[in-house]
Design goal:
Number of strands: 0
Largest sheet: none
Distance between the termini: 14 Å
Oligomer: single chain
Radius of gyration: 20 Å
Shape: globular
Number of helices: 6
Order of helices and strands: HHHHHH
Helix content: 40-55%
Length: about 200
């Protein structure tokens, strides 16, 4: 059932990266240098063969970066879900639910309703809550796309060096990119009917 959410997310990502409508772009946007942004790293650097970033300002780039980061986070959860369910792990009461796409028809309607409600709550919670009443008053807002600490969860992030932070952010983006490709591969093999040949454990 996790695959359904990720499948929908992958389709949504196509819309997020579709060419924007033609509009006047300032010279500042045209001169923006994104080659030093997190995610632009060896061996490809800023890999933009279609030249999309040439017509993009910093705000639009940050939005695209957040879209990529978000889809990467969802894909990482999706890969873990695929591997976990194909290994036979189930929540109590869901022992008869198959893994992969076969779960779509087997999941009860009430469970679908619970999942959709959970996704809606997560969508509302996983964002910068600077303007939300009750958030820690010391919270001055996100420092980068995907920063959802909101003054409560830090784990020592602010005590680390800028170099360390950039490294960790780059690792997350790279893992997300790999997960998106890996999840797509799992979904393709699932539909082809030969996923058990590439996974260590069958369901």
């Amino acid at each position: 059932m996790k695959s359904a959410a990720v499948f929908a997310t992958l389709f949504a990502s196509a819309a997020a990266f579709a060419p924007a409508q033609q509009a006047a772009v300032s010279s500042t946007a045209l001169n923006a240098d994104f080659s030093k942004e997190v995610g632009a790293q060896a061996p490809l650097g800023l890999w933009d063969p279609c030249g999309i970033t040439n017509m993009m300002d910093q705000d639009k780039f940050d939005h695209y970066r957040w879209v990529e980061l978000k889809h990467g986070r969802v894909a990482m959860l999706g890969v873990v879900g695929y591997l976990t369910t194909y290994a036979g792990v189930r929540f109590p009461g869901a022992e008869d639910i198959p893994a992969g796409f076969a779960a779509l028809d087997a999941v009860p309607g009430m469970v679908w309703a619970q999942m959709i409600a959970t996704w809606a709550i997560m969508e509302g919670a996983n964002r910068d809550q600077k303007e939300t009443p009750g958030v820690n008053e010391s919270w001055s807002g996100s420092t980068f796309p995907g920063d959802f600490r909101n003054g409560f969860i830090d784990f020592g992030w602010d005590k680390q060096s800028d170099e360390w932070k950039m490294k960790k952010r780059a690792i997350e983006i790279n893992n997300g990119r790999a997960a998106q490709m890996g999840l797509l591969g799992l979904m393709v093999h699932d539909k082809l009917g030969n996923i058990e040949t590439i996974l260590p454990y069958g369901n």
